[in-house]
Description:
By secondary structure, the chain is α/β, with parallel strands linked by helices. The protein is 42% helix and 15% strand. It has eleven helices and ten strands.
Amino acid sequence: MKEIKLNDGVEMPMLGLGVYQISDLRECEKTVLTAIESGYRLIDTASAYGNELAVGNAVKKSGVVREKLFITSKLWVQDAGYEKTKIAFEQSLKKLRLDYLDLYLIHQAVGDYYGSWRAMEELHREGKIRAIGISNFYPERVADLVAHNEIVPSVNQLEVHPFYQRFDAQRFLQKKDVQIQSWASFVEGRYDFFNNGLLTSIGRQYDKSVAQVTLRWLVQRNIAVIPKSVHKERIIENFNIWDFELSKGDMDAISTLDTNASAFFDHRDPEIIARWAKRKI
Length: 281
């Protein structure tokens, strides 16, 4: 497994398992156990996903030494602010049955995330979080956060896939030494993704699936990935991307798929922001 060193010296696996939308706790626990048994060491969850308890149970049952695992969770909007962040973090830690988190992210750039960041900086200094970061922060929000705080985020988790390639955001974040991590790497199957002609054609050259080609394309761009699946064969398939390398021609061909637009929603849309502000978990 390839790892990348974050800006605070913490080493993070380039590939992990995401558990978004796995709401059935037994299924989530089984999925995480399968992933760990298959070699995954990074598991990405969030308080908003409602499955931290299942992830924690799987981690305990896996038998893998805690220090060998990299566990991420995220702070939801309702818990933004200094005091509420401290409480929410402890609740996540309790559900996960852990003494510390490897990475803790602010889930959305909504609410008092400056207060949240100050609390997270303190938790980082106390050793309760090894690395702190953000999710769904556009460049202008990242620039503002960096300019007014002590610690630069280690990670920014963004929607990145062949149809929304985020080259401008990546260049900006690289200048700030912030690592991109892709969510929705497979566009959640939209645009008939798994039957895409170009990705299928490239995959045939290497005897690899569309999913594997996409993950390989991302890691070759130095973008970390957290693909989600509940199927054992696909969990294993997604992990097996280290035995081939896409050519420059293949990389350039995939770049032609970019629409430069989200497949889901605009995180700066006032209606979306208002909806998140009202959502309680």
